[in-house]
Amino acid sequence: MTSHRWSRAFLGVTVAALVVGVVLTLLGVSGWADIVLIAGTVVALGPAVWWVVSALRAGRLGVDGIAVLALAGSLAVHEYLAGALIAVMLASGRALDDYAMRRARRDLTALYERAPRRAHRYEQDGPRRVDVSEVEPGDLLLVPAGEMVPVDGVVCGGAATLDESALTGESLPVEYAQGESVRSGVVNAGTAFDLRATRTAQESAYAGVVRLARETEAGSAPVVRVADRFAAWFLPLTLLLAGLAWALSGEAVRAVAVLVVATPCPLLLAAPAAIASGLSRAARRGVVVKGGGALETLGHARTLVLDKTGTLTQGRPEVVDVAAARGFTAREVLGLAAAVDRMSSHVLAAAIVRAADERGAEPLRATQVHEEPGTGTRGTVEGRLVRVGKAQKGLNSPWMEAQRARAALDSAMTVWVTVDGAVAGVILLRDAVRADAGRTLRRLRAAGIDRVVMLTGDRAEVAESVATVLGVDHVRAEQTPRQKVDGVREEARRAPTVMVGDGINDAPALATAQVGVAMGAHGSAASTQAADVVLTTDRLDRLADAMDIARRSRRIAVQSAGVGIGLSLVAMVAAALGGIPPAAGALLQEGIDVAVILNALRAMRPARGTRLRVDAPTDALLQHFDREHAALRPGLALLREAADALDPPSPASLPLLRRVHDVLTHEILPHEQAEEERLYPRLGRLLDDPEATVTMSRAHAEINRLAARLGRHIRLLGADGPRPEQIDDLRACLYGLHAVLALHFAQEEEAYFSLAGRGE
Question: Where is the chain membrane-spanning (predicted)?
């Protein structure tokens, strides 16, 4: 018989015995009433004795011993009604706890129940429905509309719109372009698309999440063991008080009354119920916790250790700038590089192609493409030989040295583009900081983290630049996996420590920390297996949500146990003085136990914590302006390109300057004005501070001032380009606009747009 059925049967038998006994008593059939009430008491006495024996075998002195004494005592002093009430109390407490555990695990077991079972695999006669276990890497699959992606793979033949809400908590569908990787377990929210399998079902992301769900268990939480430790003093105190009540009054019934009101077996189940509720709540936020112990430890952590790449940063390179040599424009350089790199599988090539598409570079076709490992890619574009990759030997110039120095200052990687043996330009790439990283760290500090450490294998200058932006307390750069383990151990000796990482090299450090957290969306299988907590969505802010849930669950668990014990002590004193007879005491204790267990279930409900709630209209506006930011970023690159083109000034710079002015006038300034009129008033109300957006408004004013100054320069331009007296101020104006807009965009994305799409 399952625990659920057993608890229901146990409750049904004890309630039936109590009801029948009371009815028979009212009908005057006291003899039969006593027999029925005794039977109900004996039914509960057996399981209670078993719970005591089980606790002793596990090395614990459980307070279930008090229940055994209370049941036996009620039989000994002929308080059969009290015994039947205690039996119902025990059964109802177990039933409530079983309900709490089943409700808490519902979100986790739902992951297993909705696991993909079938796939549509292309064969000679078209798609055929097969068992998902038959899918092999390389198979071409059809994913119909409304069905689940069965295995990890790459989108083929068009784009895919996927609903990831059940797996990650994201409320809006996510679009994936052709060639992008998708995970199993998400639902096709758009039209049917083809998928090239890259893993088997057992190796896919969803199977890993299911394995994590199966490992979840609430009973091992330290806070639950704290509840067990109540027995160390509560049981002797109860026996002492019961003995004194009997000795001083000479009435054994008083001792039984003390034992009855001191029966807190269901009460102490409130602690695991609260922890289990917290596990459920975390799962709904896209956080799988591998047990109550990890959740409870997360709730009182004081030090946070983070890897950099893929944790604080996006984990993939992005084009941050394109510098064009004389005779080329940045857009031309990007278009030529993308034409060659479209045939390459290199991660830098994918970033260059993505940037070219986003910035509207002219789509060019390359032929005779050849990839040279460790060097780059070459191909023919419109009759010209284009090379993309490392700088060719023998090519060097003051301009190239200047670009290398600039890349070093920006901690950026360089990809050189040459055309027919001459340098056309250089593309700078960098792993960008996550937009939600700054806000997440501030939330974690507000939740109790007082030390943030970065452990990374990356170069010191790169790590320091990220740490400076995010306000990290201490940086350990160029660390090997062994050094990472040593660093985590050192921090763990000072305070309870949480380690967050995503790579294979992070797995040993994750296993070393009191709580290891893996970025499971794109992290390695090794880090996911080694971690205690897995963020199933690629959002760092889910860690702050998990810590909020952990702290609240722990607080509610301790509160439930402590308040319940306190109320029991008051009732015990009253019973010892003769103020509460056994039957009334049983009813009183039943009320106390039910109340605290229901209080423990509060941990399952949403709470604000350190998270700012965003209403739907404001969330929609944030997402709208965030998308506009992405579309406007190429305009920022134009500003710097135009400024660079003024050295030396020439008529060729005129079209670029006018284009910059058009982008400012028709795209950037209307965007800033719309933010001022539509978004900022809502943010002021959301943040409950009309002054919250003042600094951003001041940036808008500066952008308008510089744009107006640029406009006056454009009107003064001659046919031969800028006048000599304009050059310095025009260049300063362009660089100033680029700097202000870049900073302003970054501030808005961190402070405001990182709030978008958070879901519940």
Answer: 6-28, 35-53, 65-96, 230-249, 255-275, 556-577
